[in-house]
Amino acid sequence: MSTPFLSVRDLRVHFSTEDGVVKAVDGLDFDLEQGKTLGIVGESGSGKSVTNLAILGLHHKDSTAIGGEILLDGQELLTATERELERLRGNKMAMIFQDALASLSPYHTIGRQIGETYRKHTGASKKEARARSIEMLTKVGIPQPDLRVDDYPHQFSGGMRQRAMIAMSLVCNPTLLIADEPTTALDVTVQAQIMDLLKDLQQEFGTSIIFITHDLGVIADIATTSS
Ligand SMILES: Nc1ncnc2c1ncn2[C@@H]1O[C@H](COP(=O)(O)OP(=O)(O)O)[C@@H](O)[C@H]1O
Ligand SMILES: [Mg+2]
Fold this sequence. Notes:
By secondary structure, the protein is an alpha/beta fold. It has one domain (6-226): 3-Layer(aba) Sandwich (Rossmann fold). 39% of the residues lie in helices and 26% in strands. The protein has helices spanning 48-56, 82-88, 100-103, 110-122, 126-139, 145-148, 158-170, 188-205, 216-222, and strands at 6-17, 20-32, 37-41, 64-72, 75-76, 93-96, 176-180, 208-213, 225-226. A five-stranded parallel β-sheet has the order 6-7-8-3-9, sandwiched between helices. Strands 2-1-4-5 form a four-stranded antiparallel β-sheet, covered by helices on one side. Helix 5 crosses helix 7 (158-170). The longest helix has 18 residues, at 188-205.
């Protein structure tokens, strides 16, 4: 077996609240190899999102005690500085959420939002970023991408918004993609299309994927291993 690309050891995420300490995650271990998919299944409130926010370094530092070890491609994330994490987020690791509408800004075009992420990490010009946005919209199967790039999120259907968010998360070719219940809000046929799309993109880019769901049927379809 090759060295795991992502290795989580004895992860603990404890929140201090007015009612005491909430042990949302308490002693979690898993490994993920390059280009593979790890399925995480669990009931609502079982700590799935909390785990992934810990990997991305998105918990509030003052009210959250995080212990254990998270190694991404040999780099320890729990001791990384905010600056290092910012460089990794969107670039080396990216996340897609359940609710694309809430994650996209209503005030900026789809193309601008995909392009901004790209510019932030590559220093590309606006023109290059627009071309890259159109390229990504093409890859995720948006029809007439050269026109739809100028649409606002409300002009997209739910399935198209989810595709746009996938395009945004993959625009810098991240090596780790965390998909947190990405199809839960979509109807069954669109769900199937999004799953196929993720598989195709994984083949093309060799992305490692953490796929979170509460639906065992969905996990059977996509995961190489599950825990
Ligand atoms: N910032 C927080 N402060 C206190 N408790 C939290 C916080 N974030 C999440 N929790 C609690 O941690 C548990 C796990 O939440 P979460 O990971 O979001 O569940 P899910 O598996 O549905 O994604 C829940 O009981 C939730 O209420
Ligand atoms: Mg969740």
